[in-house]
Design a protein that fits this description.
InterPro entries: ATP-NAD_kinase_N, Diacylglycerol/lipid_kinase, Diacylglycerol_kinase_cat_dom, Lipid_Phosphate_FormReg, NAD/diacylglycerol_kinase_sf, YegS/DAGK_C
CATH topology of the largest domain: Tumour Suppressor Smad4
Domain DAGKc: 1-130
Distance between the termini: 19 Å
Pfam families: DAGK_cat, YegS_C
Keywords: ATP-binding, Kinase, Lipid biosynthesis, Lipid metabolism, Nucleotide-binding, Phospholipid biosynthesis, Phospholipid metabolism, Transferase
Radius of gyration: 19 Å
Largest sheet: 9 strands, antiparallel
Number of domains: 2
Cofactor: Mg(2+)
Order of helices and strands: EHEHEHEHHEEEEHHHEEEHEEEE
Length: 305
Amino acid sequence: MYHFIVNPNSRSGLGLSLWAQIEPELQKRKIDYTVFFTQYQKHAWEYTEKLTSDHTYHTLVVLGGDGTVNEVINGIRDLSKVTLGYIPTGSSNDFARSFKIPSDPLKALEIILSPSDYSYMDVGCISYQNKKRRFAVSSGIGFDAGICHEAVVSRFKIWLNKIRLGKFTYSLIALHRLFLTIPADITLRLDRQNPVVFRKGWFVTVMNHPFEGGGLKFCPAAKPNDGYLDIIVVSGFSPLRLLSVLPFAFAGLHTRFRGIRTFRCKTAEITTTRTLPVHTDGEPIFLQRHLCVSMEKKRLKIIIS
């Protein structure tokens, strides 16, 4: 039994039209399946939590963007009892990019129905104010999270998605926010070692995959199944210098510049001098000053080919 979780509004309504291509194929092949359409924020989370509350094995298939994947992963009661398939229909699709899942929905469906390979993915987790949230791709605080917050309500995103250029959403919003953001001092403590302070920090992002924001290869060495979290810290830049450096991240060449540091760890504590926006897989979290980051003890089985 396959349980499809469909975000019909992903990429400004493209999700629903793609499901219309997929369902006839399922019926033609007489696949046993259920389908659930999300209607509001955290709806996929609620549904997945209810579905997996029986603690039996389930195969879930997400048709949506990275945000829908995030909601589903947060709703899973026991990560070890779920196999996850993915049909990417979002704006950035960094989860699919890392696993090389095809963007063609029927090709992605074929992989799910006739899998030949799996990956057991680490699942990241942030804790803040007695709350907890998982992430699949990345979680950040500062400038990159501010971009994610704005993307949720951005007219740029709606317009670009309609002309199938949604991957440029984050680049345009970054330009808009570049001169609005005031850097803050950031303290980073890795694996309970001595803390390190970064003056005029723009952002800290904890990566489980190499990519964020529609293909920015922030942590080129990150692997979603190596048991480690990779971290990028960007600090000490002027807005114009940051603007000139960020495009290098699409090729993973940004780490050569002074002011960009990367680390690898099992746990991290991040503290900032004032409250800043936070995201998990692009999904906004209200302003915070202190985050604890770790990995779940159990991994999630992903269909990759």
